[in-house]
Design goal:
By secondary structure, the chain is an alpha/beta fold. The chain is 34% helix and 22% strand. It has 15 helices and 19 strands. The strands form 5 sheets. It has a 6-stranded parallel β-sheet with strand order 2-1-3-4-5-6, sandwiched between helices. The relative contact order is 0.08.
Length: 450
C-alpha cells in the first residue's frame, strides 16, 4: 500500500486530561513520521483527529457538537483527497467503538486508548475504502512513550510513569477505558527524563491516573518517592506530577517536597467530597479526617505549597448536611484552585444505578454556593505573593495582549508581565524570568520583570 499520508494536512483536537494531551503529541509524531504536516485549524486539514474524554457527559456532548459542525464542511482547497477524514480516539473511542457511528455518522475512523500506533494504518484504510474503520484493544503491550512524539512546547514534556487505574471509584469510567494500572520500570522513566534534559526541556510533568501507587505492580509496594528522587537528580529545572490519590499519598512523597529543589510546590489532591458518607459511596477509601491530616503534613513539609483539588457536587444520595461538610472542608483548606463538577452518571459505572439522584436544580444551587467559596479562598491564597519576586517559566505572549508575557510560577499560577522594551515573547518563551508581583487576582498574578 502506498503511503497516502504523505503531504496531507492534519489537525488534532484534544479534550480531557493530561494523558490525552500526551497521547495527542504521540499522534502528531506518528502522522508526521508518515509525511503529514500539522495545520492550526480544522478547515485547513485533510485529516482531523479528535482525542476524546468520556469522564463527564458534557465532554461527550461538546465533542459530538464539534464533529457534527464539520461533517458538511467542504474539503480544503487543493486537498488531494477531495474530502476530510474524521477520526475519533481516546476514551470515547475505547468505550463506544464502532457504536460511535450511530451518534456521529460522518466519522471515518475509531480507535481506542491502547492502539494509538494503528491510527496511520486506519486512516490509510479509510482513504482507500468506504465505511467505518475501527479497532480497539483491551490492553496494550507497550507504553505510548515508545511511539514518536511532537511536543507542543520544546521546553516542557509529559512523562507517563503509569497507565490505567486500579481504584474503581464508583463514579469513574477511567479503569474501564484505560485498563488496569501498569507501571514503567524506573530505569525507563529516568532514561526518558535524561533525554528530555539533553534536549533542553525545562519542565517535566510525571503522569498517571494515580502516580502515588506507582510501582506496586512491579516492586510489591508503591515507589513514587523513588521516581521523584531519580528524575530530580537528572538536572531538570522543574518537576510536577498529576494525579495524586489521597489514599496512597505517603510520608515519603510528602517529604520529597521538603527535600527536592526541582519538585515544584504545587500539589493536585482531589478530594471529591468533604462528607465521609459520600466518600464511602464513591469508594474513595479515605475519610475527610485523613484528607485534612494529609493537608497538614504537606503544609508542614512545604509551607508555601499551592493546593488544588476536584470536587463533585450532587453525587447520588448527597444530603444538605453532606454538602455543608464539603463546603466547610474547601473553606478550611483554602485551595489555590478547585475544579468543580456537577455529578454526571456514566453508563457502566456502579454509581449510574444508585438511587436517590439529586435534582439538577439542587445540584446547581450547591455548585453556585461552592464556587463562591472557591473564588474567595483562591483570591486570598494569591494575596500571599503580593510584593514577592517569583521565577516564571515563560510560555509566550498573553492571549489578550501580545505586549504582555504569560508564564507559570513554581506554584503553577498564571503570571503576566509587560514585555521588556525591545524583547518579543517568542524570544523569552521557554526561559525563566523574575517577576515582582504587584497585583494578585483570583486566577492570575501580574507584575514587572526585574
Amino acid at each position: 500500500m502506498n503511503n497516502v499520508l504523505e503531504g496531507l494536512a492534519y489537525n488534532v483536537q484534544t479534550f480531557g486530561c493530561q494523558m490525552n494531551k500526551h497521547d495527542s503529541e504521540r499522534i502528531s509524531g506518528l502522522l508526521q513520521a508518515q509525511g503529514a504536516h500539522e495545520v492550526g485549524s480544522v478547515d485547513r486539514a485533510d485529516v482531523v483527529v479528535f482525542m476524546t474524554c468520556c469522564v463527564r457527559e458534557s465532554a461527550e456532548t461538546r465533542l459530538l457538537g464539534h464533529v457534527n459542525s464539520i461533517k458538511n464542511m467542504p474539503a480544503r482547497e487543493g486537498s488531494p483527497l477531495g474530502r476530510r477524514i474524521i477520526a475519533i480516539g481516546g476514551c470515547m473511542g475505547q468505550n463506544y467503538g464502532a457504536g460511535l457511528s450511530e451518534r456521529a455518522p460522518r466519522i471515518d475512523v475509531v480507535f481506542g486508548t491502547h492502539n494509538i500506533a494503528e491510527l496511520p494504518g486506519l486512516v490509510e484504510e479509510a482513504v482507500h475504502g468506504t465505511g467505518l474503520k475501527h479497532r480497539t484493544l483491551d490492553q496494550a503491550d507497550d507504553f505510548p512513550t515508545d511511539l514518536p512524539s511532537k511536543r507542543e512546547h520544546p521546553w516542557s514534556a509529559w512523562l507517563p510513569i503509569t497507565v490505567g487505574c486500579d481504584n474503581f471509584c464508583t463514579y469513574c469510567i477511567v479503569p474501564y477505558v484505560r485498563g488496569r494500572e501498569k507501571s514503567r520500570p524506573v530505569e525507563d522513566i529516568v532514561a526518558e527524563a535524561e533525554r528530555y534534559v539533553a534536549d533542553g526541556v525545562k519542565e517535566i510533568t510525571l503522569l498517571g491516573q494515580n502516580v502515588n501507587s506507582y510501582g506496586r505492580d512491579l516492586y510489591g509496594s508503591p515507589a513514587f518517592a523513588r521516581v521523584l528522587d531519580a528524575v530530580c537528580a537528572t538536572g531538570i529545572d522543574r518537576v510536577r506530577f498529576a494525579t495524586s490519590h489521597p489514599k496512597d499519598l505517603s510520608d515519603e512523597v510528602i517529604d520529597a517536597f521538603a527535600r527536592l529543589d526541582a519538585l515544584m510546590p504545587a500539589l493536585h489532591l482531589p478530594v471529591q467530597s468533604g462528607s465521609n458518607g459520600v466518600l464511602e459511596r464513591m469508594n474513595r477509601r479515605y475519610t475527610r479526617e485523613h484528607y485534612l491530616d494529609l493537608v497538614r503534613k504537606v503544609r508542614a513539609a512545604r509551607p508555601d505549597i499551592a493546593l488544588s483539588t476536584d470536587v463533585i457536587v450532587g453525587f447520588p444520595g448527597e444530603t444538605d448536611d453532606d454538602f455543608e461538610d464539603t463546603l466547610r472542608l474547601v473553606d478550611e483548606v483554602g485551595y489555590n484552585q478547585v475544579f468543580t463538577f456537577i455529578y454526571s452518571p456514566r453508563t457502566g459505572t456502579p454509581a449510574a444505578s444508585y438511587p436517590d439522584a439529586v435534582p439538577r436544580a439542587v445540584s446547581q444551587r450547591r455548585f453556585d454556593r461552592l464556587f463562591e467559596v472557591v473564588e474567595k479562598r483562591a483570591f486570598e491564597a494569591n494575596q500571599l505573593d503580593l510584593g514577592s519576586v517569583v521565577s516564571v517559566l515563560v510560555e509566550g505572549a498573553s492571549k489578550g495582549d501580545a505586549r504582555v508575557l504569560a508564564g507559570r510560577s513554581p506554584r503553577n499560577q498564571n503570571v503576566h508581565a509587560p514585555l521588556p522594551a525591545g524583547v518579543g515573547a517568542d524570544e523569552l518563551a521557554g526561559t525563566f524570568v523574575n517577576v515582582r508581583i504587584d497585583e494578585a487576582k483570583t486566577w492570575y498574578l501580574s507584575g514587572e520583570v526585574v
